[in-house]
Amino acid sequence: MDNIDDEAMAESQPAPAPVPWYSLNPKHLRLGRITQIVILVAGVVALSQMVSVKPLWQWGWRVPLYCWQQLQPITGASGRKYPGGGWTHGRRILVYGAPGVKGRAVREAAGGLRDLIDELGLDMHVEETTPPADALRDLATVVGKGNAGFDFDRFRDLRLDSRGEQYAEMVVVHQSFTDPTWAWGLSEYTPGLSVLQENMAGNELGKHEGAHLLGYFYHDDRPWEILGYHENWYPTGRDTLMMLMATTNHDLSDRARDALLNFWRGKEDREHERYFRAK
Asked: What local confidence, expressed as pLDDT, does residue 231 receive?
């Protein structure tokens, strides 16, 4: 009799309200443990791209956390793999222009790069030179005939196979880029390559792209906020060298300088090599 009453009472209870589809409660979503871990890690990474704090920012560049992608192997045009950033052991950066590029553009770009290296105190030699024979061949392959755009990715892959990782390069060219078409310069630390458009290749652009070449692949609008640095809370209001768009200030921000210094200190720790000049 009691069982019948219990069943009747259970049937009289209202059914639980359905869980909304937008619920973020893991119990309602019925996510597996691995899925929850993946979501948590992705959330932490996403948050780090928006907000950080000064000690974490500096530690993250030294570990490396913010820059781990740049240390991965890279593949040349032939399919051969090269260590990420292997060029740094040679401590040389050649700066030259494609055929027909004015020497002034090359000198100013090299000057900006030297200013940056001196500011950071790195033991890195910048050498203005004429294009190596293999570079002329690779440039001809990439540029082709007419007004075709400059394919940075193709040139990077060719250069890795042609020169290996003996040194890095900053190259000034006539053409605009095929992708992205709006860029004035493109640079990557991993293969040791920076390419600048001649019509914009001054001291400022040489220094800006030089910072990317030396490992700072961010711009100063990412992360959105780093607690501990005194800067405009809204990214587009910042006036520093490493903003995505042109600025009136040609100086590194504190966040960018700290990132580069800690990046190279981390290299010294891991590789047991000296990259800074002796004091």
From this structure: 85
Average pLDDT of the chain, as a whole number? 88
CA angle 268, 108, 237 (to 5 degrees): 75
Query: What's residue 259's pLDDT?
Result: 98
Q: Give the relative orientation of helices 254-271 and 103-120 as an angle to the nearest 10 degrees.
A: 70
**CB within 8 A of 19, min separation 6: which ones?**
25, 28
pLDDT over threshold 90, residue 24: no
β-bridge pairing 74-75 and 193-197: unpaired
Sorted by where each starts, the structural domains of the chain and their CATH numbers stand as: 71-216+233-271 (3.40.390.10)
